[in-house]
Every structure is written in structure tokens, then in C-alpha cells.
Design a protein that fits this description.
By secondary structure, the protein is an alpha+beta fold. About 30% of the residues lie in helices and about 20% in strands. The N and C termini lie close together (about 10 Å).
């Protein structure tokens, strides 16, 4: 498993002591959970991003959606143009903290079967994304 590092970081931490903060990408596009799937797909295409961070009305991160998830929702039999992101997110999470070790985050990603994790602060605000290299 290889992690992406979008911005160079000046750190002297060893690979064993590396934290999520050392390897996370900036937060990138964030959208509100009341956005429709169609608009979210358009935002994702405009941002040239493979994922969007989803936040609630109070600014707390409620999850992350990928282009694959949005396309599957749009192609589903229950789809209508009124389906909102909050309708397809399901349970909140998984999330990680910037102080989580890379080993712990890797384990969480494998266990949850995800390619990207939102990185949130103690208030639930999105700080960035930890993503696998493609």
C-alpha cells in the first residue's frame, strides 16, 4: 500500500513514527450534504477530483464520496434527481485524526476497504484527505 503525498512536508520523522499529518493531502473540494448527486458529479468533474468531502450544515465532515459511489447511486433503480448526498452516505465515517500513525491509518483503510479517509480535527472539521496512490 502506497500513500499519496500531494504537498512536500519538511519532517524528520522516521517511517515508523510518521503520522497522517505527514502524508495527507489538503482538504480539497468540500460540499454540503444537501447537494444532489448530479450537482456533486458536476463539481467533482470541475475540480478534477476523484472524491468530495461532504459536510453538514454546521461544517462537520460527514463523509467522503467518490465518483464510483455517485455513479452507482445515479445508475440505481431508486434514483431520482432529488437524491441528496446525505441519502447515499449511510453511517458516518470512517475518519482519521492527523496524529494517527500511518500504520494505524493503513490498518483502518484495509479493514474498512476504502482508498481514502477524511482527516478531521477534534471538532469534526475536515483538515485533509489521506489517499492511496493510484
Amino acid at each position: 500500500m502506497t500513500f499519496v503525498q500531494m504537498q512536500p512536508r519538511t519532517t524528520h520523522a522516521t517511517a515508523v513514527g510518521r503520522t497522517v499529518a505527514d502524508a495527507m493531502e489538503t482538504a480539497g473540494p468540500q460540499v454540503c450534504d444537501d447537494m444532489t448527486v448530479e450537482v456533486a458529479l458536476s463539481v467533482m468533474a470541475s475540480a478534477r477530483s476523484g472524491h468530495l468531502l461532504v459536510c453538514d450544515d454546521s461544517g462537520r465532515c460527514t463523509g467522503l464520496v467518490t465518483q464510483t459511489q455517485l455513479a452507482a447511486a445515479r445508475d440505481g433503480s431508486a434514483y431520482s434527481d432529488r437524491v441528496r448526498l446525505r441519502d447515499i452516505l449511510g453511517d458516518r465515517g470512517p475518519f482519521t485524526s492527523p496524529v494517527t500513525t500511518m500504520a494505524e491509518a493503513g490498518h483502518m483503510m484495509r479493514y474498512s476497504d476504502v482508498d481514502a479517509l477524511p482527516v478531521v480535527d477534534e471538532h469534526g472539521s475536515a483538515l485533509g484527505v489521506l489517499a492511496l496512490a493510484r
